[in-house]
Amino acid sequence: MLSPIYIEEHVKAALKEDLGHGFDITSNLLIPAGQEAKGAIKARESGRLAGLIVALSTFSFTDIDFDMTVMAEDGADLKKGDVIAEIIGPARSLLTAERVALNFMSQMSGVATLTAKYVEKIKDTGCEICDTRKTIPGLRLFQKYAVEIGGGSNHRFGLDDAILIKDNHIAVAGGISEALDQVHMLAGHTKKIEIEVDNLKQLDEVMANGKADIVMLDNFELPDLKKAVGRTKGRITSEASGGIILETVRAIAETGVDYISIGALTHSAPALDIALDIDV
Questions:
Q1: What CATH fold (topology level) applies to the domain 4-118+269-279?
Q2: Domains of the chain: which residue ranges?
Q3: Catalytic residue selected from 44, 99, 211, 226
Q4: Do domains 4-118+269-279 and 122-267 have the same CATH topology?
Q5: Is 279 noted as a catalytic residue in this protein?
Q6: CATH number belonging to domain 122-267
Q7: pLDDT tens readout for residues 118-155
Q8: Does 134 participate in catalysis according to the annotation?
Q9: Is 166 a catalytic residue?
Q10: Choosing from 131, 148, 194, 196, which is the catalytic residue?
């Protein structure tokens, strides 16, 4: 999913943001040119590792004279104190790249860690955990990659790769059937159509229309969600969304819903505490 071109573009942009139009003034004033140092990237808390290649690329784009040894790979379940990688090279460059590298890896590992917790909660239910488009602008592919590393699935990547009729679309179109009829007529048979509903009455209208492939059951209370799954099972793919937390996700999955989409995986995942310890 993460192409070298995409990584390079975003890492270089982040380094430019940090360096501005100058250089790392503190490191250049304190550290003699040519001095080397050894850095160990370590986990300061337990979690699922993601974004290592992005972090290592940050060091590589800062200086070509680094030697790197990798002790863990993306998808590894880290424990506090685990060494992820060791880097030996110019001390100035090591310090210049440090924060950008750790920002990427900590954020991505946080997403992977939170996703893994949700996935673990619903194991053996047959349901899948999905992300949403509620991502940090400019970092969507990094975050969606991290969701996959956490064991989750990716929903649509953007507005252009899937049809999802939301409540505001329905309002503008004049109703559920009007929206479904219009999209079905113009989209062609190769595109699946998903539509969001807020209650059982809207669901019944979707089912009667017959043109949707997937229905998003948004903010349904558990009793109504069970009824909704009973009406959709075997006829249309179902997806639950809206306000789902770790404490409720198991009960929602046990209704028999096919997918659960959770914006918090990307917009609210706490960064995993990862640090760089330097030994001169």
A1: Aldehyde Oxidoreductase; domain 3 (3.90.1170)
A2: 4-118+269-279, 122-267
A3: 99
A4: no
A5: no
A6: 3.20.20.70
A7: 999 999 999 999 999 999 999 999 999 999 999 999 99
A8: yes
A9: yes
A10: 196
